[in-house]
Amino acid sequence: MLKRGVKKKFFIGTLGIVFVFGLATLLLVRIILYDALYANLEKRGAFIVSRVAKDSISSVLTENQFELQLMINDLRPVRTTLRISSFSAMTARCWRIPS
């Protein structure tokens, strides 16, 4: 009887330690990975915005909507298309179009 209780306590203790270390590792990796991916996303977003702004200067000044639409379509995947009419009223949160 005594051996069974010790084995059970040892098993539960080991399981608890593994669970705590697994949870700590999961949280640490999630925090580090989230920060790294978010920083990468911000850099990519800033690059895309600056590229679009630079490339669209002449099209906006000459009001060439066809060229603007082609440029926007090149940025987006085939399954989602952005329209010129909504482009002018967009904010940063509107760039996330659900697929």
Q: Which descriptor suits the 3D outline?
A: rod-shaped
Topology pattern, helix = H, strand = E: HHHH
Number of helices: 4
Beta content comes to under 5%
Report the end-to-end length measured between terminal Cα atoms.
61 Å
- Rounded radius of gyration (Å): 26 Å
Major beta sheet, specifics? none
| DSSP E strands, number | 0
Parts with pLDDT < 50 across at least 5 consecutive residues: 78-82, 84-99
- The percent of residues in helical segments reads over 70%
Structural class: mainly alpha
Outline of this structure?
The protein is mostly helical.
Describe the structure.
With 99 residues, the protein is an all-alpha fold. The termini are far apart. The protein has four helices and no strands. The longest helix is centred in the first third of the chain and has 54 residues. It is rod-shaped, with a radius of gyration of 26 Å.
